[in-house]
Design brief:
The chain is an alpha/beta fold and 270 residues long. Helix content is 40%, strand content 19%. Bound molecules: adenosine monophosphate. The site of adenosine monophosphate has 17 residues, from helix 2 and strand 5.
Length: 270
């Protein structure tokens, strides 16, 4: 396992390396990340995992500061997995050059998290553009947990490169809660609430199978969840999984949620 701290290290390591699998992360590694890494190890000659808490994608400074960081533990996990390269850049390494063009989302993409976290995806697109240009991976492994991120990276970044995005299923714990680094910020009682809310939505999705007016049922569900779990739901929406347009069908659609549990923002999709 080689730890690469800057772009010189990175270029040296990747020189004459082909078929690179890339797993971008912000650290705080858990089994969700590990599933992506294992898939890359299986499918590619060399696997590079980056750990970079990207300040540009945080629309809230407090959120950036309290984001869980545990590089020591992360490195132990990565060593055990026999990952080839770990890229741990400083902010200056990534943002050495200015962008020629300002990153702007089309209005039709200003939905879900893009609507509520202003500048977030512009920051994600910026860093992914820079990383893809530097690493030139054959495949980038990303989780469905962040479905909108995956969708936008395909649309705005990798279409310009010879890189394929590999979409990986969301890993959940035994109580259905999607694993997330942010779960580390929750108390046990809050984790319990998040798990119950998730199970409720999984059952709800199953119950929609033959329903006609899904959006009406979703509006009722939003009210019910707010009351039942005392959370603040930012959005609960059913959207087509190929174009993210609002959908009134179960087929080819996913239910997307973002909610606050005691100031911690959680997202999921079903
Ligand atoms: P993050 O470190 O949160 O930026 O996530 C890095 C990558 O891991 C992203 O592609 C995420 O979608 C993916 N990821 C995060 N949580 C999970 C999970 N529970 N299951 C599968 N992939 C995940």
């Amino acid at each position: 396992m080689k730890i690469l701290l800057n772009n010189i290290d990175l270029n040296e390591a990747l020189y004459a390396t082909s078929n690179i699998g890339f797993v971008p992360t912000m650290g705080g590694l858990h089994s969700g990340h590990i599933s992506l890494i294992k898939r890359s190890l299986r499918e590619c000659n060399k696997t590079l995992v980056s750990i970079f808490v990207n300040p540009k994608q945080f629309n809230n400074k407090k959120d950036y500061k309290k984001y869980p960081r545990n590089t020591k533990k992360d490195l132990l996990i990565l060593k055990k997995l026999k990952v080839n390269f770990i890229y741990l850049p400083k902010e200056e390494e990534i943002y050495r050059y200015r962008n020629k063009k300002k990153i702007k989302l089309f209005n039709k993409d200003k939905i879900l998290c893009a609507k509520y976290r202003k500048g977030h995806f512009e920051g994600v697109i910026d860093v992914m553009e820079r990383l893809t240009k530097m690493i030139k991976p054959n495949k980038i492994f990303m989780g469905e947990k962040d479905f909108q991120q995956l969708y936008l990276i395909k649309k705005y970044v990798t279409k310009n490169y010879n890189t394929k995005i590999i979409q990986c299923k969301t890993v959940r714990n035994k109580k259905n809660l999607a694993l997330s680094s942010r779960n580390l910020l929750l108390k046990k009682s809050e984790l319990n609430i998040a798990s119950k809310l998730t199970t409720n939505l999984i059952l709800f999705k199953k119950s929609l199978f033959n329903s006609k007016n899904i959006n009406q049922l979703i509006a009722l569900k939003k009210k019910e969840l707010n009351k039942l779990f005392n959370v603040k739901i930012e959005y609960l929406e059913n959207r087509n999984k190929y174009n993210l347009k609002i959908s009134n069908k179960v087929k080819n659609s996913k239910i997307f949620i973002a909610y606050y549990l005691n100031n911690i923002r959680l997202i999921d999709n079903f």
